Amino acid sequence: MADDLTPASLRFLSDAAHLLATSAPQTSAHLMIQRNSLMFSHDIPQSDAQRQHVCGSCGHIMISGQVDVLDIESDEARRKKIASQGKSVKKDEPRKGCRKRVTCGSCGSYTKINLPPANAITRRRLKQSSRFAAVANTPSISTPSNHSPAPPLEVARPSANASSKKRAKNRKQGLQALLQQSSNAKPSVGLGLSLADFMKK
């Protein structure tokens, strides 16, 4: 029966401690110590998130930036620090991730949390010949017989970066073609005059 009440007790102690964190910090810390001892007596492991949120020594709820300090040390910074002290750094040593160090503002103790290393970035590039083969093997789109056939599409050029002048010229030509099509598609109603014709002097 006591095991059934453990999650509810932990939740109650945690909620009560968080409610009293600003108004009564010592009471809040005492409740968190009771919560930690209850977890320890029932062999419930603490997650890294819980360890960095609550001080294991005094029970103070740590909020980085107010009184508590959060330091993040990368593997590269650690290697440089070891090298500057004159110790040798093993080249075959596996990569380690970052390390968080949260210092409690109430008692001064700190909690170290090791983070796993990030996955190595791998970039895949298609070979030039396979890219052009993929473009050539794409099926063509059939057009209905009552429409005129579309102009053939340009094959991708080897250089992906066209100059900005070429892009601007192509954009201008495309806009002019659209304007020409829209002016040809309009049927002439009446005398073919519009408001713009009367506004001209």
Automatic annotation (TrEMBL):
Q: Which GO terms describe its cellular component?
A: nucleolar ribonuclease P complex
Tell me the superkingdom of the source. Answer: Eukaryota
Q: Per the record, which residues fall in region Disordered?
A: 136-190
Q: Polar residues bias located where?
A: 137-148
One BP term from GO: tRNA processing
Q: Which InterPro entries match?
A: Rpr2/Snm1/Rpp21
What's the protein called, per UniProt?
Answer: Uu.00g069460.m01.CDS01
Native source organism of the sequence = Anthostomella pinea
- Source organism lineage? Eukaryota, Fungi, Dikarya, Ascomycota, Pezizomycotina
